[in-house]
Amino acid sequence: MCGEDSAIKLKQAYNSAFDTALSDVDTSTLEFLEFLAKLDHINDLDDKDKTAYTVGERKVQIIDNQKQLNIAIKNIIKSKIVGFDTEQKPVFKKGETPSKMAIVQLSDQNYSYVIQVQKIQNLSPLLDVLSSPDVTKVGIGLRGDSKSLFDEYKIHLKSCIDFGALFKSKLSYPNEVGAKKSVLFFLNQRLQKTGRASRSNWENRQLTESQIKYASEDSSCVYDVFLTMLIKYPYLLEILPEWFKEKFQENHFENNLSEFKLALT
After folding, report:
1. pLDDT, tens only, 96-149
2. Residue 5 lies inside a defined structural domain of this protein
3. In 119-253, where does DSSP find H-type helix?
4. In a domain, 154, yes or no
5. What is the pTM assigned to this prediction?
6. Which phi and psi (to 5°) does residue 180 adopt?
7. How big is the chain by its Cα radius of gyration, in Å?
């Protein structure tokens, strides 16, 4: 009996100490630990029965002339945050010279722009935005895009966040998180990315409907994922770059957050 009493008392003391320790941990820390546990099982998530992701209420605009580009850039500058991606005509032979950039995609809350850069003579307005610190560009897997922009136009992306690499670089997650997994994890939706569209000829003078859908959703989904993260997982602000945290704390993105929250209701 004496041994059993000691064991019971020890268990009670342990439980009490554990409860006290938990009470000393703030809510955000517990939520962060829960997030890490979910992230560890991201590859177990199944999108089979999930709702298909779409651009939502956005207007998809194909930009193929100077006037359209100038108007689009004025809107983008006001946005302060945009989803960003690029497309090139694929090459299929080893050692073949990479194709030049054909498409630049930029999405905000209201528009998804698919810009056919090879059809526009003066790209300065677009290049100025991409190299501007005043507009935050968020994308997934941006190393190739950054390299292409420098090789072709001699510009460096500024105020750029590679969402897919965040968790690998900041949280020691073993792999970068791709667009499909990001949409499933944060939005609980299925991103319909097809290899056929990604390997299509992006230099077509007239883009197909499947190309337009692929391109517009590629940039809009990362905008939606990023804004969802900021709203639903505010403690993840800590893994973002210092320059972004400073702007966030100065309410630089208040309109983006307000518009996004309104769209969710």
Report:
1. 788 899 999 999 999 999 999 999 999 999 999 999 999 999 999 999 999 999
2. no
3. 124-130, 143-153, 163-171, 179-182, 195-198, 209-232, 242-249
4. yes
5. 0.87
6. -65, -45
7. 22
The CATH number that applies at residue 113 is 3.30.420.10
User: CA dihedral defined by 153, 159, 162, 167, rounded to 10 degrees?
Assistant: 160
Domain that holds residue 123: 28-264
- Structure tokens that stand for 60 in this block: 């998809």
CB 217 within 8 A of CB 101: no
> Is there a domain that residue 22 lies in?
no
- Measured between alpha carbons, how far is 16 from 19 in angstroms, rounded to an integer? 5
The number of residues making up the chain comes to 265
Distance of alpha carbon 255 from alpha carbon 251, whole angstroms: 9
Q: Number of structural domains, the chain?
A: 1
Q: Give a yes or no: residue 177 inside a domain.
A: yes
Q: How confident is the model at residue 38 (pLDDT cuts 50, 70, 90)?
A: confident
The Cα–Cα gap between 149 and 156 comes to 7
- Count of alpha carbons within 13 Å of 216, Cβ hemisphere only? 23
* Burial (0-12, 13-18, 19+ Cβ within 10 Å), 169: exposed
Q: Identify whether the C-beta of residue 235 lies closer than 8 Å to the C-beta of residue 31.
A: yes
Q: Which tens digits make up the pLDDT trace of 190-241?
A: 999 877 787 899 999 999 999 999 999 999 999 999 999 999 999 899 889 9
pLDDT above 70: percentage of residues in the chain: 89
Find all residues with CB under 8 Å of 204, minimum gap 6, and list them: 211
Residue recorded with tokens 């630049």 = 104
User: How sure is the predictor about 23, in pLDDT bands with cuts at 50, 70 and 90?
Assistant: low
